[in-house]
Structures are given as structure tokens and as C-alpha cells.
Specification:
The protein has 3 domains: 240 residues, Glutamine Phosphoribosylpyrophosphate, subunit 1, domain 1, CATH 3.60.20.10; 187 residues, 3-Layer(aba) Sandwich (Rossmann fold); 156 residues, Glucose-6-phosphate isomerase like protein, domain 1 (Rossmann fold, 3-Layer(aba) Sandwich). The model has no long low-confidence stretch (mean pLDDT 93). It is of the alpha/beta class. The protein is globular and about 80 Å long. 36% of the residues lie in helices and 23% in strands. It has an 8-stranded antiparallel β-sheet with strand order 3-2-4-1-10-9-11-14, covered by helices on one side. Strands 5-6-7-8-12-13 form a 6-stranded antiparallel β-sheet.
């Protein structure tokens, strides 16, 4: 999704904001741009392409000015063109705006402004914002009041950073789209995400819904709805710059895959009291709904099996974007458990808001401190998995699974047993992420690098694993992959199996016979069978051993396939950290 960064202070803004923009690259983007306030004008440079292509070393050294905003765009309204890149300027060139989010009524506003003589240079929804500000300023209203009037006209979601040629200030506004202020010794930053400015400061102020921050030599906060001042506190970021950098790893994806043993250790050092309280809430709720998207949704599916198996508890699982279909069943005694590593996924926030309107209690499981979901929830369990920069969810997924496993054990009244079980996993995970395992899986990646399709099957808890493993393979290597329940393939998809079609089969001691019987059906059609599980078998053409760990199989068995997906991406020349068309925080519906 789009990334925003702005700076105001005593240093040159351009190198700081271009650097900050690079730190936001992981969010996904297709164009980039900056606007910097110079003595008598706004200097603007923007284009499509990578940040390093849009800005040269010379730009970093020569663009003067201490106030600036920058943006990396992930196209929504209008194609990937220079004109559609941000910042967008008002017609008089005095105001520059960068925006993340969607202005739903932009067509209406565009019509109104066009009727008032404004001309639009882009197809974006954003361009109405600087022009609305100009419209109000032309009526004699001050810059600040014009911003407030303009924002009142906007419907939709927006994180905005705004500067004006004649104002020595940087204005930031947040509504349903993340924005955080960085407080450095030499000035203030505003950004979509903390890693953007983490090498400059670890002091942050998280903006709340409808907050407007006015930054110059001090910072002030207002609520844009009632225009009243609000107080926001400075928080300290606990993780360090190194955690948000690649270190000795070639890619964040590999680094984060390798951090999973530590992420599990952190997950199990959860506050016991809080886990037990959430388990109690699950026990007493009338209707439990797990809600999430993508990988987090697979964690929910996995949880539904764990809750059923360990605690004899039925929970409903819904894709957040489909949650409106359940709305009529939500009552004040319902419990919605929302999972989102970013805490910013628009579909999840929408689902949670709908649940709250019905009076339901909302508990969330989130990795990013200060994210929107933490504010919409009655209670939040923090994953503490550390920053995950690669677009693909890896350690955040296994950390979600670890916490959900702990929760299922707590619900069954066996918290300690669950904790010990997870502790025992740590060594297996170190082994699964070791160079030895990686070398072994590399042989498989070499074998599969040119295939067009991979099918994955699993039964019970291995079914969500098959789905998640398929997602990992396709989103990073662009090989078509599909995960199925073992018993389901014969109901249609088996028609696609040809001699040599690779099929990954996840096994466990509990369902070995049944899943091997499904693997036999595939083998009979000539499939190349890759077994992942505790025991090798003559059916397998390739085998990846993963020690049996019962309900925790879901945590260990996904790891070899994360590694496979990474290696396939490398062999096929894909960028594992920034897959095409994808974004780390999906802040649009
Ligand atoms: C896949 C992936 C996505 C996210 C999904 C939800 O690797 O990362 O499928 O899981 O966009 O994101 P969160 O968990 O931030 O709500």
C-alpha cells in the first residue's frame, strides 16, 4: 500500500524523506515522489518506478529545504503514470498533498471543483484535496482553516501529509489509515509506519482516528471533527533498527523465516493472566467468530481445529470481507476475535466495526503496536514477533499459531501443558530453519523451478497448512499452487494431475493412513509426490522430515514450504521481499 513520510526540522528534508521512503518499500509501490518547501516555491519530483530510479544520488545531495513530504504509490484510482504519482499540487501550485487511503466521493468533489474552474492533471482521487484547500483559501480562509473545511468534505479513508508554500508547518491527518509521528532531536517526522524513520528516532506518537497533527518547532494535536485540542503521549519503540534491517541476510523473507524460533519463544512468554482471561471470554461467549484475511485467515482456520480437538469448542471462521453475511447473527454476547499482523487491514477493521455496532465484544491478535485494530478492539493480545518487513507473512503466522495453540490449551484448562509443548518445538524450529534443511529443500526447488502447477493436500490440521503453503508458493514464485483437504481432490481437481505434476502431501501420525491413501490416488496418476511429515514412505519421491508435534504440527510443517517458496522465487528471478501487486498492509477494501 502507499507509504507516506514527511519531515520538518533543522536538517535537509530530501535525504531524510527519500531514505524514509526506501524503508517503506516493503509496503509495495509502483511510483514515488517528493515535494520540498524551498525559499519561494515547492520543489516537486515524482515518477513511476523504483525509488532508487526516481531519485538520483545527486538529488539527495542537492535538493535544499527543511520541510518536505514524500510518497510511494500503490495504484488504486488511475493507472501507474507520472501524473498519478504523489505529491499532488493545487492548481496554483501552493499546496502539496500526499495521501494513503481512498476518497469515496471524489467524483462528486471533482465535479464541484471543475465547475469552479479547477483543472485536473491526474485521474486520482487525491487531487481533489489540494484543490479543495485552494478553493477555501481563495475565499479568504487561512491555510489551517481551509484544511479543516476541505477534510470535512471528504468521505472515505485518508492518511494525509500536507505542506503549503507560505506556511512553515507540516500538517498530518489520519482517518482509517495509519499514521505515526516520529520525535527526533532535530525535528519531527510523520510516516505510515515506524521503520520509515527508526534510524532517526525511537520516540513516536501514534495518531488516533480523526487526529490532526500540526508540526513546526513544536507539535500540537487536534480532533478534526470538533476542532478541539487533544493530548497525545510519546511512546518508545522497543525494537531496534537492526531488527528492521536485513543484517547478514540477503532478503527480509529469509531473515524472518529464520527468526521463527525466537518469535515462538516470545509468543509463549505471553501474559498468562491475559491468555486465561481471553480463554474465559471464549468459554462464555454466545457465538465466537474468528475473522481475518489471507495468511491470518489460515491461522484462524487452524485455530478452529485446535479449539475443537483440544477444548471441544466450536468457533466460526469468516473471511473478513465476507463477515457482513454473518452480521445478523451477532448479538451483544457474541465474541469476535480479529487476527491481523498489521492491524491495518481495511476488511478486518470494517468487520470489527460492524461487530461493535451490534454490541459484540472484540478481541484482537495483532503484531504492530499502535495499529488501528488495537484501538477498535476491547482487548488486544500483542504477538511481539518483532517487525516483519517482507510482504509475505512468515514469522507473524507461526507466532499467531503459537498464541492460538496456547489459547486452545488454556481453554481446555491445560495452559502449562500447552506452554511446555510449545517450548519443546523451539529446537525443531531451529533445525527446520538451519542451513542443512535449506540445502535439502534447495534440491527440491531446483526440481520444481519450471513447473506451472503445484497441488498440496492435508487432512485435519494439515488442511489449513496446505492452504497457507499454497499461498506462500504462489505469491512469491508466481507458480500456480492450490491447497486442498486430502479427501477433496478426488471430487474434481484430480482431473488436473498428470505424470510429473508435483503434489505436496502433509502427513501426521494421527491421519497417516488416510492421507497416504489420498497420496496413492495421486501417485496412480503419475504425480511427483513430496512428503512433509514425521515418517518417510515409499510413495514419496522427495521427503522433508518434520518431527511429529500434534496440534503444533501446523507451526513446524509450514516452515519447509516457506523456505521452498523463497528458494523458488530466487531461482525464478522474483524479488521475495516485494512480490508484484502485493502490499504489506492492505488498507483498501
Ligand atoms: C500473505 C500475506 C497476506 C496477509 C493478509 C492479511 O503472505 O501476508 O495474505 O496475511 O493481507 O494481513 P494482516 O494479517 O496484516 O491483516
Amino acid at each position: 500500500m502507499c507509504g507516506i513520510i514527511g519531515y520538518i526540522g533543522t536538517q535537509r528534508a530530501a535525504p531524510l524523506i527519500i531514505d524514509g521512503l526506501k524503508n517503506l518499500e516493503y509496503r509495495g509501490y509502483d511510483s514515488a515522489g517528493i515535494a520540498v518547501l524551498q525559499t519561494s516555491e515547492l520543489f516537486v519530483k515524482k515518477d513511476t518506478g523504483k525509488i532508487a530510479e526516481v531519485f538520483s544520488e545527486k538529488d539527495l545531495e542537492t535538493i535544499e529545504g527543511n520541510i518536505g513530504i514524500a510518497h510511494s504509490r500503490w495504484a488504486t484510482h488511475g493507472g501507474v503514470t507520472k501524473e498519478n504519482s504523489h505529491p499532488h499540487l493545487s492548481n496554483d501550485g501552493n499546496t502539496a498533498v500526499v495521501h494513503n487511503g481512498i476518497i469515496e466521493n471524489y467524483q462528486e468533489l471533482r465535479k464541484f471543483l471543475t465547475e469552479n474552474g479547477f483543472v485536473f492533471k491526474s485521474q486520482t482521487d487525491t487531487e481533489v484535496i489540494p484543490n479543495l484547500i485552494q478553493y477555501f483559501m481563495q475565499q479568504g480562509t487561512s491555510f489551517m482553516d481551509s484544511i479543516k473545511l476541505a477534510v470535512k468534505k471528504l468521505e472515505g479513508s485518508y492518511a494525509l501529509a500536507i505542506i503549503n508554500k507560505n506556511a512553515k508547518k507540516l500538517v498530518a491527518i489520519r482517518k482509517e489509515s495509519p499514521l505515526v509521528i516520529g520525535v527526533a532531536d532535530h525535528g519531527y517526522f510523520v510516516a505510515s509506519d515506524v521503520p520509515s524513520f527508526l534510524d532517526q528516532t525511537k520516540k513516536v506518537v501514534y495518531l488516533y482516528e480523526n487526529d490532526m497533527a500540526v508540526l513546526n518547532d513544536k507539535m500540537e494535536f487536534f480532533n478534526i471533527k470538533d476542532n478541539l485540542p487533544v493530548v497525545r503521549k510519546i511512546d518508545n519503540i522497543e525494537w531496534n533498527v537492526e531488527q528492521a534491517k536485513k543484517g547478514n541476510f540477503e532478503h527480509f523473507m529469509l531473515k524472518e523465516i529464520s527468526e521463527q524460533a525466537d518469535a515462538i519463544k516470545l509468543a509463549i512468554s505471553q501474559d498468562e493472566k491475559q491468555i486465561k482471561e481471553v480463554a474465559d471470554a471464549i468459554m462464555h461467549a454466545k457465538g465466537i467468530y474468528f475473522v481475518a484475511c489471507g495468511t491470518s485467515y489460515h491461522a484462524c482456520l487452524s485455530a478452529s481445529y485446535k479449539f475443537a480437538k483440544l477444548a471441544n469448542k466450536h468457533v466460526n471462521v469468516a473471511l473478513a470481507s465476507e463477515f457482513p453475511n454473518y452480521k445478523d447473527f451477532i448479538v451483544p454476547d457474541s465474541l469476535v476475535i480479529a487476527l491481523s499482523q498489521s492491524g491495518e487491514t481495511a476488511d478486518v477493521l470494517e468487520a470489527v466495526k460492524a461487530a461493535k455496532e451490534k454490541g459484540a465484544r472484540v478481541i484482537s491478535l495483532v503484531n504492530v503496536v499502535g495499529s488501528s485494530l488495537t484501538r477498535y478492539s476491547d482487548e488486544t493480545l500483542m504477538q511481539n514477533a518483532g517487525p516483519e518487513i517482507c510482504v509475505l507473512a512468515t514469522k507473524s503466522y507461526t507466532s499467531q499459531l503459537a498464541i492460538l495453540t496456547l489459547l486452545a490449551y488454556a481453554l481446555a484448562g491445560k495452559y502449562e501443558e500447552g506452554k511446555n509443548k510449545l517450548k519443546e518445538l523451539v529446537n525443531s524450529i531451529y533445525y527446520l530453519t538451519s542451513t542443512n534443511t535449506r540445502e535439502h529443500i534447495k534440491q527440491l526447488a531446483e526440481r520444481l523451478r519450471y513447473v506451472n502447477h503445484i497441488y498440496l493436500i492435508g487432512r485435519d490440521l494439515q488442511y489449513p497448512t496446505a492452504m497457507e503453503a499454497a499461498l506462500k508458493i504462489k505469491e512469491v514464485s508466481y507458480i500456480h499452487a492450490e491447497g486442498f483437504a486430502g479427501g477433496e481432490l478426488k471430487h474434481g481437481t484430480i482431473a488436473l494431475i498428470e505424470p510429473g505434476t508435483p503434489c505436496i502431501v502433509f502427513t501426521s501420525s494421527e491421519n497417516e493412513k488416510k492421507i497416504l491413501s489420498n497420496a496413492t490416488e495421486l501417485k496412480a496418476r503419475g504425480a511427483y509426490i513430496i512428503g512433509v511429515g514425521p515418517n518417510n514412505n515409499e510413495l514419496f519421491d522427495f521427503f522433508i522430515k518434520v518431527r511429529e508435534s500434534g496440534e503444533a504440527n501446523s507451526i513446524c510443517q509450514i516452515i519447509p514450504i516457506q523456505i521452498l517458496a523463497y528458494q523458488l522465487a530466487i531461482l525464478r528471478g522474483c524479488d521475495p521481499d516485494k512480490p508484484r501487486n502485493l502490499a504489506k498492509s492492505v488498507t483498501v477494501k
